[in-house]
Design a protein that fits this description.
Length: 305
């Protein structure tokens, strides 16, 4: 079996979520560093219409969204609590809040010159302007809108909540991390590591941030985008379970996020589990691909021929 491939870029919060999770799991993985914005030609082949980062890959199986990638990390590592679907309903609700409303609040509250200076190290001025324009357009269809003052209040309330959660445990819901720790870490990582915000009024949170950072990134090796395409071409997708609990199984469908970046990905629905949809498609460059999408945060519609 090939290693997990992560298509990501350094300043991406959700990419950091995956890198930290791989560190905790201590898994070998292959890194493909991609552009901060479209176009990403190799990912257009692999992920279809899905435009968010990161994207996971194992052979010809493509994992769209961090929840799908986390489920694969949980499977490969034997750490079930890393998969959101294995967490309690209360934790799942918490994660949904942390990765949407709190994330947007953290990003808005962290837009400062320090982030800009770090971006300049990898982007030209023209690309920075393109990146800003791309994110403005991406935010127009977001399901969450908030003012700067609201963002500041949301972040402050979240910091207090996390501090309270850590009063008796090393991690948010116990003495070992689960999906919620990584979902909480990456928005605060952006604020702390990139915007250099300090959380001095929250000592338990500050200590937890250090523990999360010390998890590292696992066993990382670099490959090129062309390498990833070749791996997809030289492998067949893994066998699906042929679940019968989905009325649209075997039909042409579209799957799209329901928060932002709501660009649909089309394919034949070949599998459906409690937590995941799998779409099959054929590409002239790499052959058959299976694209995996989580059901949380996504919607599925039939394509009428």
């Amino acid at each position: 079996m090939t290693s997990l491939i992560l298509h990501h870029y350094p300043m991406s919060p959700f990419s950091q979520k995956m890198r930290s999770m791989l560190g905790y799991a201590n898994l070998p993985w292959q890194s493909v560093t991609t552009r901060e914005m479209l176009p990403r030609p190799h990912l257009q082949i692999l992920a279809g219409g899905y435009r968010k980062i990161p994207v996971g890959q194992i052979g010809a199986d493509i994992f769209c969204d961090s929840h799908s990638i986390a489920s694969e990390i949980a499977r490969l590592s034997g750490l079930p609590d890393l998969a959101l679907e294995n967490c309690s309903p209360d934790i799942q609700k918490y994660v949904q809040h942390a990765e949407l409303k709190v994330l947007i609040a953290c990003l808005m509250s962290s837009a400062n010159g320090k982030v800009l200076a770090k971006a300049k190290s990898s982007l030209s001025m023209i690309d920075m302007l393109k990146f800003a324009w791309d994110r403005i357009q991406l935010g127009k269809d977001s399901s969450v809108k908030m003012s700067p003052s609201t963002a500041k209040a949301v972040m402050a309330k979240h910091l207090d909540h996390v501090e309270n959660l850590l009063q008796t445990n090393l991690f948010l819901f116990g003495n070992k991390p689960n999906h919620a720790d990584f979902a909480t870490y990456h928005p605060l990582w952006f604020a702390h590591e990139l915007a250099e915000k300090q959380f001095d009024q929250h000592p338990k949170l500050t200590a937890w941030m250090a523990r999360m950072k010390n998890l590292g990134e696992g066993q990382r090796s670099e490959i090129s985008a062309q390498d990833a395409l070749s791996i997809a071409k030289n492998h067949a997708p893994r066998t699906v379970t042929q679940s019968n609990d989905e009325a649209l199984l075997g039909q042409l469908v579209e799957v799209s996020p329901n928060d932002y970046g709501q660009i649909p990905t089309k394919g034949l629905l070949v599998d459906s589990s409690v937590s995941t949809w799998v779409l099959s498609s054929e590409d002239v460059d790499v052959g058959k691909l299976h694209r995996h999408f989580p059901k949380v945060g996504f919607r599925l519609t039939q394509v009428l021929r």
